[in-house]
Amino acid sequence: MDKNEPSRVTAPAKCSRCHAEIPNPVVCDYCKSVNPGAAVMDYFTLLGVPETFEIDESELRRRYLTLSRHAHPDFHVQEDPEVQQLHLRVSSTLNEAYQTLRDPASRAAYLIECLGGKSMAEDKSVPDGFLATMMMMREELEEACQDGNTEECKRLGKVLRTQHDGLLRRIGELFEQYQQAVACRAVTRGLLAEIRQQVNAVSYVKKLLSRVEEK
Amino acid sequence: MEKQPTILGIDLGTTNSLGAIMKDAGPEVIADADGESLVPSVIAFDSEGKVTVGTAARAHAVENPLATVFSIKRLMGRSLSDVREDLTHLPYAVVAGPRGSACVNVNGQVRAPQELSAIVLREIQSRAAAALGEQITRAVITVPAYFDDAQRHATREAGQLAGLEVLRIVNEPTAAALAYGLDRQTDATIAVYDLGGGTFDVSILHVSEGVFQVLSTNGDTRLGGDDFDRELIDLITGEIRERFGREITFGPATRQALRNFAEAAKIRLSQRETADVRIDLGDGRVYTRAITREEFEARIQSHVDHTLEHCRRALSDAKLTASEIDEVILVGGSTRIPLVRRAVEELFQRRPYTAIDPDRVVALGAAVQAGILAGRKRDTLLLDVTPLSLGIETLGGAMGKLIMRNSTIPRTATETFTTSVDGQTSVDINILQGERELAEDCRLLGKFQLTGIPPMPAGAPRIQVTFLIDANGILNVSAREERSGRAAAVQVTPAAGLTKEEIGRVVKESVRHARRDMTAHRLIDVRNESHRVLGAIDKALANAADILTDEQRRKLDAAVERVRTLMDTNDDPDELYRAMRDANDAAGPLTRYQMDEVLSKTFRGKSAKDLDPRIGTEE
User: Fold this and answer.
1) Residues of chain A found within 8 Å of residue B372, distances taken between Cβ atoms
2) Which of A99, A113, B2, B455 is least crowded, fewest Cβ atoms below 10 Å from its Cβ?
3) Is the pLDDT of residue B177 over 50?
4) Residues paired with B218 in a beta bridge
5) Cβ-contact B433, B446 below 8 angstroms
6) Are residues B516 and B402 in the same domain?
């Protein structure tokens, strides 16, 4: 996900096939043909949701399913290879977009880059003291696993889950601050960097969590 | 509206296979004249190379164990080393084919599992063609959800070899859910527990308003009813050795007989508490034994526990607990075993749903998917996932994941590669599938080589490689050098599948076979027709030989003689056909006379000259 930088494509004003004016950037309302440009749109534009961290998840799902009904390859197997290729491309982008935006942590990571912040590859830093806490947790976890102490494993899992949720709450607050800062034209660079750190921290916690759950 | 050619839904199973089609009223399985729809996935070859499929082939398994192939699905897309464990249980010879792939040696001829599966597919195809009265050229074929890329490829190749355009490879549990969930109105989260002859899958789906969204899937492509049979075989062979001496060896025919005994006992134990086994070993040695259900259950318990472990993983991936599942669907013959039902019921805390025959539900679902592809069900949207993570081998032999397991398909991932040496024009990449961290613990799908990279300093080229998992769960790779904008060639060498050339060869061979088969068929038809014509001429001669002139008679005798000779010696159907036509023409005066006779009695005054004078051969 980190590798796919969001690309900015403004939605065309007219359908490439029937030339009708189209309010929906992905599917023409009139001839129902899929816009070839959809495969390279940023995920918020593609799914037609506002570019914010807080989103209406049921609305996101509804839009994803509606668009998938037009783009899914199942409905185009009898068409020309080029048409099939187009739908394959758009459909796979829709799937990736939905998976990215549905999960709060990956949505945050994606949004940072949309807003011009650094990717995880460019900025791997985490909040002060976070690494020390994680190292401690990891040691405790390995010990508990070696001893076959499932109770302790469960407890550590719970601690990690709490930490995970706390980080996400913090990310939500920071994005809110970011919006307010944008609204009154204040400086935002530092805010994005701070969110980046929190998002990096979430991905560490997630990795540890998945280890606990595998056990 | 013009009638569209039918798309056949096919469940290509380890033990049984069958076809189904979508009708206006709903999906329907294809049955033969006796009403039987299951075709045992068994292929038998006799010493002359004649092939039998299905029930007939199965009947010969004991007398001809080395040339009767079953459970071929376990070998699909696998290398010989993958299936080593299975080998002791298979009476036929499994050998290494191209690139170490597992192939079968029957009577000295090495055949790929794809070719053997194609024989089963062709049988299903021709049954459907006979039932529907139309050629079947397009199909949807189901595979276990946990099949990897190589196994899916192999299945599609089998379809191609059978002369089918495989429009979609669909996952078996997903197909079952489609068959079940068609008419449901309310939202529900369902679990499909699919334990077949050789494979186990569990899928968790969310179903709402015609949307079938797979949330997660898990399984084991080498766990099924075959393994339960083996447990019983081990029990029986162990006891036979104990009773009659350790030195007793079990030849292929005996092994095959044991397999049949074990399978019968297993099936019986789903109905009753005990199953009697009686095996005559010759020389007055008779092994008799009453196996109890309790004993059987103790033997298969660990396998069943294994399936529950997969269920828990699927739940965890779907971020759900067992209590959040609204419905559990059982699929596959092995779910008839009481222990399996109890275990599933206990895990999900609810009675599983079994309204549709577990042997037929997958084929019915395949037909539903065929209906969707044919555009007959626009209101249904199926969103399936890839069962395994896809990645590439990175420096140090690690697995770098690009597409995570349980991602909705189709799905793409892009990765940029570069060179490590000045002027390097090609890069080798290993593609992997699996969940482990080290490349060597994952399955190598294939190696691909990026070639045609313009010579540049090390690290300068930027080759963007796109990995696309399509809606069949099959990987497609394409590449582009970003600086030059040139498409780099991607040559994927499959680790276990067939190369394009190999497919081409087998297809050509099977076309040649088909042509030979067709010639043989036509020869039989023309011979039969010749018999009929000669008989008719004889009869006419007996009635009215005197109306012929000497010249006409000579001509007729010569023509008849030629047909007789050709019938005995010739195997060119066209030549025989021409001779038969000549004889028919030579008999023209006779036939016209006879018809006039007949007609003068019925339609007075009308001459047979206006009617077709020939005795009636088809052009």
Assistant:
1) 74-75
2) B2
3) yes
4) B202
5) no
6) no
Could you report the per-residue pLDDT of B353-401, keeping only the tens digit for each?
887 888 899 999 999 999 999 987 778 899 999 999 999 888 778 888 8
Interface list for A 172-201 with B (CB within 8 A):
none
ipTM over 0.90: no
Say yes or no for a CB contact (<8 Å) between B381 and A89: no
Around Cβ B601, how many Cβ atoms within 10 Å?
Answer: 8
Closest alpha carbon within chain A to B319: A213
The nearest alpha carbon in chain B to A69 belongs to B381
C-alpha distances in angstroms, A41 versus A7, A26, A38, A90, A182? 6, 9, 5, 10, 23
CB contact under 8 A, B372 and A74: yes
B119 bridge partner residues: none
Interatomic CA distance for residues A168 and A103, integer angstroms? 11
Give the ranges where A34-118 is alpha helix by DSSP (H).
Answer: 43-47, 57-71, 81-102, 104-114
Could you tell me if residue A157 is inside a domain?
A: yes
Least confident of B166-175, B382-391, B492-501: B492-501
Active site residues of B: 11, 73, 172, 194
Task: Specify whether the CB–CB gap between B423 and B456 falls below 8 A.
Answer: yes
Q: Which two tokens stand for residue B125?
A: 């195809």
Q: Which domain holds residue B41?
A: 7-223+300-383
Determine the distance in angstroms separating the CA of A60 from the nearest CA of chain B, rounded to an integer.
Answer: 15
Residue B274 burial by Cβ neighbours in a 10 Å radius (0-12, 13-18, 19+) = middle
Angstrom CA distances, B549 to A48, A201, B542, B544, B545, stand at: 93, 108, 15, 12, 9
Burial letters B86-114, b for 16+ CB under 10 A, else e:
beebbbbbbeebebebbbbebeeeebbbb
CA B156 to chain centre: 9
Residues A98 and A137 in one domain: no
Burial of A188 from C-beta contacts in 10 A (0-12 / 13-18 / 19+): middle
Task: Give residue A152's domain range.
Answer: 130-214
Total beta-carbon pairs less than 8 A apart between chain A and chain B:
58
- CB under 8 Å to A158, separation ≥6 — which residues? none
Q: What is the mean pLDDT of residues B224-239?
A: 90
Contact B350, B328 (CB under 8 A): yes
| Chain A environment of B435 (Cβ under 8 Å) | none
Distance in Å, alpha carbon of A91 to nearest chain B alpha carbon: 7
| Contact (CB<8Å) A3/B415 | yes
Cβ-Cβ contacts under 8 Å, A89 against chain B:
412
For A92, the token pair is: 């796979």
Residues of B in contact with A68 (CB under 8 A): 381, 383
Statement to judge: residues B74 and B170 lie in one domain: yes
pTM, to two decimals: 0.79
Q: Are A96 and B411 an interchain contact pair (Cβ–Cβ within 8 Å)? A: yes
Query: Is residue A196 domain-shared with residue A147, that is, in the same domain?
Result: yes
Instruction: Kindly list the distances between the CA atom of residue B187 and the CA atoms of B181, B209, B210, B299, B483, in Å, as whole numbers in the listed order.
Output: 10, 7, 10, 39, 50
Asked if residue B246 belongs to a domain, the reply is yes
**How far apart (Å, rounded) are the C-alpha atoms in residues A53 and B202?**
34
What is the three-class DSSP state of A47?
Answer: helix
DSSP string, A122-185: T-----TTHHHHHHHHHHHHHHHHHTT-HHHHHHHHHHHHHHHHHHHHHHHHHHHHHHHHHHTT
Per-residue model confidence (pLDDT) at position B607:
45
Under 8 Å CB-to-CB from B580, ≥6 apart: which residues? B526, B529, B530, B533, B563, B617
Largest CA distance in chain B: 100
Would you say residue A153 lies in a domain? yes
Residue A108 within any structural domain of the chain: no
Contact, B426 vs B469, CB < 8 A?
no
Whichever domain contains B126, its CATH number is 3.30.420.40
B608 DSSP assignment: G
The reported pLDDT for the residue numbered B617 is 37
